[in-house]
Amino acid sequence: MATAAVLTGTLTGIADATPPGIPSGATAKSELATLKVAPDGSMSGYSRTKFPHWIDQGNNCNTREVVLKRDGTNVKTGSDCAPTSGTWKSPYDGGTWSKPSDVDIDHVVPLANAWRTGAAAWTTAQRQAYANDLNDPQLIAVTDNVNQEKGDKSPDAWKPPLTSYWCTYASMWVAVKHKFKLTVNSAEKSALTDMLNRC
């Protein structure tokens, strides 16, 4: 759990975590307009184990370790790929951390939200690909407490504490839903529209 280990956040040379494939605000608005609006489905049958993660990504690294290396600064790892040192700045809240245990890898569109909005009909292989997607803005290193507060909430119920990140967060959320053909509910679409209007 992230506690007093937080650093000042004013350290120079520490970049925010940045996943690949974040669209511009204009592109995200266009993609949002194409998403099917529908009520969320049931949670019946849901389990995180139906989205196998963190899988082997080669070089002794699993998905979590790859994202920790990608999103951190000066990350050093042992032979097993687990980080031994580094610094991580969470763009959700601006917290800066030097212990990997204080950092969670967030699924931008949570697994349970994906289940309710289309993934319940997927194969296990499709869900595994979703849960370990390194090519789209779906995985990001953030402060663990903040990620736990988010849970499986959509943007109408939870937004990053830093309002300056809302445009980017909404753009990432829309990109993932668009890529994986997931639905949005009306409250979620309204919240995303408001956030993209900050872009």
UniProtKB/TrEMBL annotation:
**Matches recorded under Pfam families:** GmrSD_C
Which residue windows are coiled coil? none
Keyword annotations for this protein, in alphabetical order, are:
Endonuclease, Hydrolase, Nuclease
Q: From the Swiss-Prot or TrEMBL record, what is one GO molecular function term?
A: endonuclease activity
Q: Where in this chain does the record put each GmrSD restriction endonucleases C-terminal domain?
A: 96-194
Q: What is this protein called?
A: HNH endonuclease family protein
Q: Which organism is it from?
A: Amycolatopsis samaneae
